[in-house]
Write a structure and sequence with these properties.
This protein is 50% helix and 18% strand. The protein starts with a strand and ends with a helix. β1 and β2 form a beta hairpin. α1 crosses α6 and α4 runs antiparallel to α5. The protein is built from 6 helices and 5 strands, in the order βββααααββαα. It has a 3-stranded antiparallel beta sheet. Strands 4-5 form a two-stranded antiparallel ribbon. It folds into 2 domains: 32 residues, no CATH class; 117 residues, TTHA0068-like (Hyaluronidase domain-like). The N terminus is likely disordered. The longest helix is centred in the middle third of the chain and has 21 residues.
Length: 160
């Protein structure tokens, strides 16, 4: 474990860094001491884990806590992710009209950010939701494609 200076926007933090994950457009640092960024939070990890486990309501709830703390592209990204989860929850409850409405909103937000953002292929997932047959078993419904390092980060930390 090493002491490193971590930059979060205009702020700098010195923390004991256990390890880091290099994503395409960001570096996530896992530290012993909490940092003031929503994407380093347990709530973000928990929300992504719930999404991958097809617990869409839980994913929506956890990610919404993170979304409230974000601005700019980060906020748009989380809104699209949340609305994708809500879309699936509505499909699961056989509420097709609301499901399509949430998917439309998610795609509008996703069109304003890069298709690969924070280690997630958001556009591909939303396109798969558009093609989803609601009659297929829930276990076959699509989950977002994650960069492998991000997926390891989620499941290693939630197993603790």
């Amino acid at each position: 474990m090493a002491k490193e200076t971590i930059h979060r926007g205009k702020k700098k933090f010195v923390a004991d860094v256990l390890w880091t994950i290099q994503l395409k457009n960001r570096t996530l640092a896992v530290t012993q001491t909490p940092l003031l960024t929503p994407f380093d939070s347990q709530m973000y990890r928990s929300g992504l884990c719930a999404l991958l486990e097809r617990r869409w309501y839980d994913a929506h709830e956890d990610l919404e806590h993170v979304w409230r703390q974000c601005t700019g592209d980060d906020r748009l990204f989380l809104q699209a992710l949340i609305q994708g989860a809500v879309c699936l929850e509505h499909r699961h409850r056989d509420n097709q009209r609301e499901s399509w409405g949430q998917l439309r909103k998610a795609r509008e937000k996703a069109n304003r950010i890069p298709s690969f953002f924070m280690g997630i292929h958001l556009d591909e997932w939303l396109a798969a939701l558009h093609e989803l047959d609601p009659q297929s078993p829930k276990e076959k419904w699509p989950t977002p494609q994650l960069e492998p390092a991000l997926e390891r980060w989620i499941f290693e930390k939630t197993a603790d």
